[in-house]
Amino acid sequence: MKVQWEGVMPAVTTKFNADDTLDLVTFEKNIVAQLEAGVNGIILGGTLGEASTLTPDEKETLVKKTVEITAGKVPVIINIAEQSTKEAIKVAQLAEEWGAQGLMLLPPMRYKATDHETVVYFKAIANSVALPIMIYNNPVDYKIEVTLAMFEELLADCPNIEAVKESTRDITNVTRLKNKFGDRIKILCGVDTLALESIVAGADGWVAGLVAAYPAETVAIYKLVKSGDIAEALRIYRWFMPLLELDISPQLVQNIKMAEVATGLGTEFVREPRLPLQGEERARVQSIIDNAMANRPALVDYQAL
């Protein structure tokens, strides 16, 4: 299946049982809800998916299970965030064998690579597989920015680099990328609290986090903006914003898993060293979720747009 790099692509959570094994029953329930809401792809093993704690066998299981659940309806994409170029290439090639249809690439982890090193790293992975690739550009969290000059070199040499998860927190970057590259690279907003603004500015899609708990509301906002009904999209977006802000936190995994519990699409089990929220912070997050659930908006028939 060809990845179109547009629409809403959930960066899904990884579900665990109380004994720290993969909870594939709850995982399937969530993926089915995403499909029913009308998402355009599934992204596995990102930050929200607790990628750094997953074993190779678990990654294989998640990819194969998601390919089975989606049954060709939407592409399955896996995040690559390894500690070395050699390992990144190995996982990328394995992901292709497991049935993934695309990759999301982070820059080198645990080492602040130079621009040249980052470009060489991305090229090495891209040239090792046939899968289409989305570069994850998040200098706020990962301290490495993929600049326009770096993208120019990557796009010239790697035809399978097709998209960027734009997470610089600078809305004007959407326009800069469009002005520089036109349709050569698809742009997906990677920051929940900037999604509507990014789509209005011309972003092709949204790699979303709170979609894990609220798939219908997320897809509705995207489709309403693309159809030109900004007022209706804003109505939902303004309700959604306190929840979306839970995504821009070091504890985003715990936050979003609490939201998944509220909507019946997940559990709170996280993998240590992460632990469920406690005390005042837990009460604060729960209050945001409770208020959102009490005022959850009715949706128009967005799937018909």
UniProtKB/TrEMBL annotation:
* One matching Pfam family: DHDPS
> Any idea which residues are catalytic in this one?
Y136, K165
| Keywords for the protein's UniProt record, in alphabetical order | Lyase
Query: Which organism encodes this protein?
Result: Pustulibacterium marinum
What's the source species' lineage? Bacteria, Pseudomonadati, Bacteroidota, Flavobacteriia, Flavobacteriales
Q: Which InterPro entries match?
A: Aldolase_TIM, DapA-like
Q: Could you say which residues bind pyruvate here?
A: V207
Q: Which residues form a coiled coil?
A: none
Q: Does the keyword Lyase apply?
A: yes
Q: Which family does it belong to?
A: Belongs to the DapA family.
Q: What is this protein called?
A: 4-hydroxy-tetrahydrodipicolinate synthase
- Which GO-annotated molecular functions does the record name? 4-hydroxy-tetrahydrodipicolinate synthase activity
